[in-house]
Design brief:
The chain is built from 2 helices and 3 strands. It has 96 residues and is an alpha/beta fold. It has one domain. Strands 1-2-3 form a 3-stranded parallel β-sheet, covered by helices on one side. It is elongated, with a radius of gyration of 14 Å.
Length: 96
């Protein structure tokens, strides 16, 4: 069994990686869908609460997919903190 921590996009940073290591985690599950990008219902640095456009609001850029370069850089950043990138959680609803 692997002990991992799920981190939203705004939490993919050195501070949260250090917390994951301190908590005994060995792996990270990255949630790259950006539900935190706009509006009072989706405040930055906080869990979105919903609003007129639905519980999660708008997410990401429907015209832009993640690139291999971005994913490789993310993996390298996580590994530099002593963790492993185990999974990428979910896709933007616009890409369904």
């Amino acid at each position: 069994m692997k002990l991992g921590l799920g981190l939203y996009r705004h939490m993919l940073d050195e501070e949260h990686y250090a917390f994951a290591v301190q908590a005994g985690c060995t792996h990270v599950i990255a949630h790259l869908v950006d539900y935190f990008r706009q509006g009072e219902a989706n405040p930055a640095q906080n869990q979105p609460t919903g609003g007129k456009v639905g519980a999660w609001g708008y997410a990401g850029d429907p015209g832009r997919l993640w690139t291999a370069t971005e994913l490789i850089a993310l993996r390298q950043q996580i590994e530099a903190a002593g963790l492993k990138l185990e999974a990428i959680e979910n896709l933007a609803p616009a890409h369904w």
